[in-house]
Amino acid sequence: MKELTKFGVIPIDYNTLATALTGYKSPKDKISLLENNGSIIRLKKGLFVVSSEISKQTLSRELVANHLYGPSYISLESALSFYGLIPEKVYTVRSVTTKRARRFATQLGNFEYMTIPTDYYSIGIRQEVVNNEYVYLIASPEKAICDMILSTRNYRIQSIKAMQFFLEEDLRIDLSVIRTYNTDIIKSCIETGIKKTELAQLLELLEQ
User: Fold this and answer.
1) Which residues constitute the domain of residue 15?
2) Taking the model in full, what pTM does it have?
3) Same domain, yes or no: 12 and 99
């Protein structure tokens, strides 16, 4: 359908979709029909994405995650997997947000959001451009590691040795790779005062 293909893989809200379908007698009924026949996929109430069968494009769960709940960016295991820093395949798309923590179960999979402070949020976010067609927000490798440290609420890392164990044994990250990373991002995270001791251990380990 020409009315739908123009949206590509970009998630669309109900009003935008209804406006695109004003040529039909009842846009509301048309939307229900499109959902029932699989032409569009409901992500949550009032938010849809055109199916890959109609758009002829591969849907991006990362892009969906940005639109499903925001402000947010891809991080934690999802970002570490994207950069090839951890060996495990990640099935739930994990993001961080300044809003309250949420989980969504959709036809495209599960999406999870962790809450972080506003002043910490804006550090180390980058744009991933895909085929010059769309962009989504993702943590830099350095910020994703910092976010992982923040997410380990009951695990206190009080020494460089403990930090090395956490990275190499718990996360299975190759330290030789991340030693070349931008420590300025970690320093900026430390300045916010969140998990300051643990992040300082990370910084010292990488600067050795």
Assistant:
1) 2-59
2) 0.92
3) no
